[in-house]
Amino acid sequence: MEADIAIFPELSLTGYPPEDLLLKPSFIEENQKFIHKLADYTDNIIAIVGFAFKGEGLYNSAAVLCNRKIIHVCHKQFLPNYSVFDEERYFQKGSSNTVLEIDDVTVGINICEDIYYSAGPAAVQSLAGGASLIINISASPYYIGRIQQREKLFFARAVDNRTNIFYLNLAGGQDELVFDGSSMAINENGDILGRAKPFCQDRLVLDLDLSGVKFARLEDNKYKNQRLSHKDSKVDIVNTEFRVKDKKRKLADRADYYEKMIACPEEEAFNALVAGTRDYVLKNGFSKAVLGLSGGIDSALTAVIASFALGNENVNALIMPSIYSSEDSMGDSEKLSANLGINHIMVPITDIYEIYLASLNHLLKTSEINITKENIQARIRGNILMAMANEFQWVVLATGNKSETSVGYTTLYGDMAGGFSPIKDVYKTMVYKICRFLNKKYANLIPYNILERPPSAELKPDQKDEDKLPRYEILDLILKSYIEEEKDYASIVKMGIDPQVVKEVINMVDSSEYKRRQGAPGIKITPRAFGKDRRYPITNAFRLE
């Protein structure tokens, strides 16, 4: 069945974000050549495609293609320059509000951030231009809660402007970002008419009945008053000279409730981690991955993510026991490998560790187990993982979580070694929640002991994480407040947390920036991830007194 309009995401030709590739003239030229090539495929169809337009300046644009021609180019007006976005570094702001006349339908086109402003292009196109359908092409990155935030926003825009909205979002991973897709169509009453599947490429085909817009506007006094206030707003009207193929055609709606696709926040986060890991590994030329499996919950979740992302036959786990590793940990690692159907290889490190100690004995200050000797074990494991990566062209997946990375409870060139870090932005408490969800859905995929055993690096006798850190419930509460909400020491203490604990945690976060800067990239799933989302100088004397 033929469609009238085919819609593609923001900057779909360049990928998002293209970053400093946009500074290369040859990159811009190739992108513009391809928009002309795409036009050749638009016999009797309209295509709306995101690309970078070079004119007097560089613009984040949407090309309207029809009958083998570029009939119009719309430029993004609101350029985000916060969080992970740097669009003002590269692009000029557009200024015109475009509406297309398609047969007897008026359609507004805008790009991502443009729809976030109540008085922005969507309002002008609907109120001054009379658009009964707004098409928004987007590359909106995911974090937990983002999908629901967007739905509330689009509901408000649709109802305020009494218009239909078709929101088309990018799906897939790009470096540390994962785009959830979750494209949708919404009518003038805010009802969701159709929804694409999240975290995967999907094709959403809908016939939109726009006849209700006229009646809704006639009955809505607020809309009529707003329209009067926009009577002097300028709108660029483009006649496409296109005729709708079949006005009587009606496809089945796909208005499934989101809860039918994603049961809970834990499943949503897990799907994001799988999609981001799959795309990072495969798009960068790898087909197989390797990780260290310790018997702990972090490496267990990383192994599950990898097996779902790449297929169990493409995941290799190294079990590297030392003299301090418990039999339970090793046994649980083997059991998890069997449950997942991944390849596991036993590589004991005790002999290597003893050789290190013998070689360094005359330089070490003490015969006791200290941080130096703990880190030697972690770095031996990191070296072995990297050796296997070199030998078999595997990518190493680091297994550190956000809680430990935040406070520096990690070893540089040891457990931080890797090409990608899937759970880098996942707090420890969320790691447990996701694992419990997985066990409920997949019949105890992760051995019970892994979830119930007190967390431990097992780098010295009877070691527990809580020997050096607060309970993870307290630690994560402090970290979320300090990192994501930018609360200061006094504000966090007012939440009823021990002042000394708050002070210690904040100082650990601040003093560990140099470690985080050297870590592998990982998937952003929180509102504020480390990296280009949260940017602090390494050389920084500001400390809590």
How much of the sequence lies in strands comes to 15-25%
Q: How can the largest sheet be summarized?
A: 7 strands, mixed
Helix/strand-derived category reads alpha/beta
Count of runs of 4 or more consecutive helical residues: 19
Number of strands: 17
Write down the CATH class of the largest domain. Alpha Beta
Morphology = elongated
Q: What is the CATH architecture annotation of the largest domain?
A: 3-Layer(aba) Sandwich
Query: In which order are the strands of the major sheet placed?
Result: 12-11-8-7-6-5-13
Overall pLDDT: 91
Describe this structure in words.
With 545 residues, this protein is α/β, with parallel strands linked by helices. The protein contains 19 helices and 17 strands. It has helices at 25-39, 87-90, 121-128, 146-161, 211-219, 221-229, 258-261, 265-283, 297-310, 327-340, 350-360, 371-392, 402-407, 428-441, 448-452, 472-484, 489-493, 499-511, 513-517; strands at residues 5-7, 46-54, 58-66, 69-75, 98-102, 105-111, 133-138, 164-169, 171-174, 177-180, 184-186, 192-195, 236-239, 289-292, 315-319, 343-346, 395-396. β3 (58-66) and β4 form a beta hairpin. The model has no long low-confidence stretch (mean pLDDT 91).
